[in-house]
Amino acid sequence: MRVEGEVVAAIEAGLCVLLGIGRGDEAETGARLAGKIARLRVFEGEDGRFDRSLLDAGGAALVVSQFTLLADTAKGNRPSFSAAAPPREAEPLYERFCVELAALGVDVARGVFGAKMQVELVNDGPVTVVIDVN
Question: Does 29 qualify as catalytic in the annotation?
């Protein structure tokens, strides 16, 4: 991941977590989400089935704050981001989520909150999962 051309975070095998924080989200929600992500079985085992978690696989997490995931495109052609938490509320929850995930034993690399980032991703599979713990 780059910010203004400089590499600020990188991982090898693991998950790229695009974290959308909405209005009304709480620290407890982030803790539940961290546990779910650490234990979610999305890595293939020897038999080719998804039976290994991030913890089992020894992978890392690249966590990127991504308010655009909360876009409302129901009306018009310009998305509304009114469901996204404002930065002053979202940043502490982003940081807390990263701390909770690390406390579970996952190596965590972080983006720069609020920065325009260039994220490079090799999606092996591809496997993309939306997780909502609300």
Answer: no
